[in-house]
Structure formats: C-alpha cells, structure tokens
Amino acid sequence: MILDFGKLYEGFLLIANGWTPLGAFLGLAAGMLVGAVPGVTATMAVAILSPFTFFMNPIVGIPFLLGVFKGIITSGSIPAILINTPGNASAAATGLDGFMLTRKGEARRALEMSLYASVVADMLGTVVLIFVAEPLASVALKFGPPEFTLLFAFAMTMVATLSGTSIPKGLIAAALGILIACIGLDPMSGYERFTFGSIELTGGISLVPLLIGVFALSEVLIQSEQRLANYILPETRGRRVTLADMRRVAWTIVRSTGLGVWIGILPGMGAETACWIAYGAAKQRSKHPEEFGKGSIEGLAAAEAGNNASVPTDLIPMIVFGIPGDTVTAILLGAFMAQGIHPGPLMFVKHSEILYAMFASLLLTNVLLLGFGYIMIRYFVRIVLIPRALLLPSVMVICFAGSFAINNSFFDIIVAVTGGIVGYLMRKAELPVPPLVIAALLTPGFESSLRRSLVMSDGSLSIFFTRPIAAVMSTALIAGLAYYLWKAGQKRFAKKPTLVKTQ
After folding, report:
1. pLDDT at site 421
2. Euclidean distance between CA atoms 121 and 115, whole angstroms
C-alpha cells in the first residue's frame, strides 16, 4: 500500500484542534515523569491510564496513550544514567555506559545523547511505520516458530559480545540467567520447575524486580563500601554533547535504529530485546569496543536508539492485521476497540482519517519529546549533586517501592533483594551481569519457539534448514558463529608471547 500524502495532510489538519496536541503533550509529560521512577513499566502506565481515554474523542485519547508509551520508554534512561537504576527493562543496557559517564562528571552529556538518539530513532521508526507498515507486517507474519527460534538464537549470541574479556565467565553468567528463566511452570506441560513447593515461584521470576536488584541494589552495596567522603559526585554543568559526538555516533544511531525497527515489527520481541541487540551490534562494529561498559557515548546512543526505534514499529502488526505485538499494543488494541475502532486491513478504508491522524500525532509527539526532554534535563541532572549518604537510602526505597508496584507483591521485593546480592557477588567475582539479563530475558521465548518447532517436525532439526527463511537464517547464524570463533582464535594467537633467541 502506497502512502497517501493527501490523507496524511488531512491527518495534520484533523489534529490541529488544540486538544490533540494538548493530549499528546500531557501523555508525553506523564510518561516521562512516571518513567523516571524505577519499576514502572510502559505496560503498567498505559494500562492504568487507558480507561480515562474511553470517554475521550479518539483523536485526543489515542495520541494521549501514544505519548505515554513514548515518554516512559525514553525516560527510563534517566535513572539508569544518573543512579544506575533502569526505569524499565528497555533501559537496562543504557545504564552500562550512562552511569559510568555520570561518575566521570558527564551526566548532562549522557542525558543529552540519550535524548537525541531517542528522538532521531523514534522519528525514523515513525517514518517506517507510515511508509511501509503493510509490507513489513506481511513479512513478519511469515515467521513461524522455527524462524523465531533462530531469531532468539541470534540475540543469544550477544552474550559472547557482552562477556568482556572472559567468554567463560560470560557463559557462567548466561547459564545462571537461563536457570532463573526456567523457574516456574513449564510453558507446554504445566509441570512445576525449580519451585521447591513455593506458590510464589510458580509464576516465575519477575524480570523488572530482578533488573532493579542486579543493577541498582548491587550498585548501592558496592558504593556503601566506600567512605562517605567519596559520596559527592563532581559538578555536572560542564561538558555537553558536541557536534563531534554526533558525527561519531551517527552511523551507530542509524544502524541501531534499523535493528530496533525490525525487532519492533516482530511480535513478542519489543524494546527490552532491541536495546541489548543494538548495544551488542554496536560493540561488535565499533572501532573502540574496549570503551563499552566504561563510559562509551557510542554504546549509550546504540542502546537508546534501539529501544526507541522499536516503539512506533510495535504498532505495525496491530494496525495492519489486528494482532498485538506485545502487552502494550494489546492494551492499545483494547483502547481502540473501546472507541469502536477495529484495527486490521479494513482500518485503512473504514477509519483512514483516524489512522492518518494517529500518524500525524506520532510525528508531533517526536517534536514535543525533543523540546520537553531538553528543558527537563537541567532539572534531572541535579540528582547527581545529592550527597551519597542521602541518595543511596533514597535509591533503596525507590527500588523497593518500584519492585512492589509491579505486581503489588512483597515477593517481588525479595526477588529484588536476592538479585542485589547476586549482582553484588557477581561484580566482586568480576562476572559480567549483562549476559545474565540477556539469557533471562530471551530464554522463555527461545524455549517456547524451539519446542513448538520440534513438535511441528516430530523432533527433527531439519525444520531449521528446509523452510526457506529459516534456512537462510540458519546459514547466517552458523556463518556468524564461525566468523566469531575465527576472530577469537586470531586474537588469542596474537596474544601468545613469542620466544626471542638470545646469544
């Protein structure tokens, strides 16, 4: 389907009523403010606020919810950068370099780069949504369990990239993440796994409290070992993002946006996966991979571009085929239907004016995001000037409150505390934390897709080579792993000391 510029122009005219821009701005502002609180997910915020839109005109209510969605994904990077506490799972990779920049006294530079990368990626993702929604969604629908299995396998290879200097340590951390993901009920048989008779564990380990624990509480424990004299971070009014910084990360943002767009189109993936894949790919392609995890502006831009690019394209399966790609779009689908709008192929015919008004509001929200985010940075950055003796207990309270708010469960606080202890011990033992998070995030989808694929093929692995798309992906995966092993072998051989003969 070719974009009708006339209808897009009509969409802009339709939202130029004053109320729609106001609704989009209020949604964006609410999303950014709420998203800065650790533990508040996009699903939670949209679910809580969606009933208020049932009594609004859809031209106002839908842009409001889209503003909430965009704002909370973008602002999740704020606590990740300032206090190493991801606001939501999609910002977990951002804290790896963002917090290190804060510790160097470059919090404002980190926040500005996060904002710029988010806005650029979001804008490009919106353009993709507008122009190629139907063709891209039709490709995604051709993916079956075998293709999703290989896609998850591709994402799993990021474990090697994010393992630091020791692949074995990275594999140990990933194995721990896989074990954590296996806790709960078997997805196909319903049998209990590693629950030890606990009712709470039958539902599995909630990811967000785990993230809060391994990243935030472990950081509190690490910093608590330092003297109070070291608890004041340096002034952060100095360095800001420069044109040289933007030139350096330009291709990284474009590449990460492409990955985020593609991941957003595929149902079940989302921003949580996009941030890690974009970060890992950026590290692989970087000229300075040794800087990643130590305050790399490139790594920060990659993570933020990846997760924000997936936001608009998450809407593609829902809009074109009426199939929600994740929990947020499932809630949005319910909000559409409450307004009497049924997403699907006929939406382009029956509700084209609302559809193009939504496209126009997405573009408008990007502009509002840049302006509101830039103004708020100067206030958010002051968090780092709070004395550590006051900030660390406050972070702990926020962590506990955010963990509890996920499911209103005290057990999630226990998960966060346990995750904090595990993260602390891992950091002491120099075990990388990202492989654990990646494995815990991807294992459920990988297991489900793999087992469904084997059921389809009666236990034969040939299904990954006989289906056209799966065969191409399998070949690419094998070639990629072979290339990585070859490069790793070259590096190891190059590091071997050479014997010099002496006379």
Report:
1. 92
2. 10
